[in-house]
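Researcher: We're teaching a course module on how sequence relates to structure. For the next exercise, students receive a sequence and then see the predicted structure as tokens, so they can try to spot secondary structure elements on their own. Here is the exercise chain.
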Amino acid sequence: MKTKPEMISFKADAALKEALAGIPNRSEFIRDAVLAALENACPLCHGTGILSPSQKEHMNQFLVNHSLEKCQDCQEMVFRCRK
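Model: And here is the predicted structure for the students to work with:
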């Protein structure tokens, strides 16, 4: 059974409103942007950018055997297992 889509709204400042003005289907654009952001959110902090004290302790334990370094191919920061 398909459920009826729910309306969700948000406030936008003048600059965002102006930037969205020329987009033909703003609802579809915003849905796609939100879904893309959710797919790329950090699995630990869920996109907040902040770890809880417990998460930080687990990260410190993880980093005992791993390092955080720049990938030579894509130039992004990645975890590497220490050999």
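Model: If you want an answer key for the exercise: Helices lie at 14-20, 26-39, 53-62. The first strand starts at residue 66 and ends at 70.
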